[in-house]
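Notes from the 1:1 (GR / supervisor)

We went over the backlog. Supervisor wanted to see one worked example end to end before approving the batch request, so GR pasted a single chain during the call. The sequence is below; no edits were made to it. Supervisor asked that the structure be written out right there so they could see what the output format looks like.
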Amino acid sequence: MSEQFDVIVIGAGPAGYVAAIRAAQLGLKTACIDAFTGKDGKPALGGTCLNVGCIPSKALLDSSRQFWNIAHNLPVHGISVGDAKVDMGTFIGRKDKIVKQFTGGIGQLFKANKVTPFFGTGKLLKGNSVEITGADGKKETISATNVILASGSVPIELPFAKFDGKAIVDNAGALDFAEVPKRLGVIGAGVIGLELGSVWRRMGAEVTIIEALPDFLSVADADIAKVAAREFAKQGLDIKLDAKLNKAEVKKDGVHLVYTNKDGEQKLVVDKLLVAVGRRAYTQNLLADDTGVKLDERGRILVDEHCHTGVDGVWAIGDAVRGPMLAHKGSEEGVAVAEWIAGKAGHVNYDTIPFVIYTEPEVAWAGKTEKELKDAGVPYKVGSFPFAAIGRAVAMNEAVGQVKMIAHAETDRILGVHMVGPGVSELIAECVVAMEFKGSSEDLARIVHAHPTLSEAVHEAALSVDKRAIHKGN
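Structure output shown during the call:
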């Protein structure tokens, strides 16, 4: 007879491992299955985010920023440094050390919370049993009252630009270049393309980003996207919009690209090509044919507003279901599902999930864009404030960007906040809290903000909604 659990979680990424820990905290006997292995070939918990996504990319972004600052930001402070060089072994090694610290940390959290880990691939069988296939091919079956599917996502591969792990790479490959490529091509001007493109541009690569959509960062507010595009261009990111890749061929002298834009067919040769055109739900071999769990037209697991699949005791969360593919969204779904299983009141507010792009300057937003509100016929008012008028930002030599706040024209309830500038990945949290509490722009305007801080831009933007900002003309 197979071992019995209260909860089995398939996947140990930010959605799965968080769900497992919360379920165990609630007194449920919990198992978590994952097949991810680290660079050393050993099991590595944390999924894409900790191994080849959020954490390693931020490590490289920070390292590359230090290098960029030497030549571009320190001179204005009166600091000069000689011919700076980078040891690529140390550069990549620091990232790997951070990854190992955090993946190992999840193992310790599992141990502390009495979560039983299984290393291998998990397949849901009828009746809430799960077949585990280990790396050696051996199979075992465990069962539970509830199964949470948290299988995550994988990069989308283009049929005419297949990943070879050397010349044409996905996000994982772009984190491990042995040397700085002289010419880097990036397909897709989304979060991954912009962040990893920024890393290697700062390190000295010539970076060309090819984006099929006509508008830059169409998911963000148009005013914020415009500022971001201007700053990225200043840094040397060559972003070609409304350009569709037709062909990528690896030759001795590099990857030969053929793409089409408004001027017709164009050619480009690069040393490395990063394909970052999005991700898709990973459900390969996840479900036996008779489980009753259904997928939508995009291959995502169908769930209701409570992340339930419609099959008794089977839930799904994270990148494998509808909604934004964000680690924190998956984590909160994991907590909510664990609490629903335990008979408690779980909750995820999808309207206030913050989005962040960790470029320089950073981009962050939560809630509705101005275009979305206009299209929906919602009456609104807007306030904005530039970081150029914020003393702390000027003192930091990072006085680029702005905070834009949108409130309902009649109730003043905050409907969306959009930012580009220094530290906005942290500043957005204040706005999310205000939105969660159904706050108004006046609420934020009346809160005392410390001076001098970057957060004063949020304060002034809130004041600006009613045309009463102090440090700019309204």
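Supervisor's comment: The mean pLDDT is 97.
Batch request approved.
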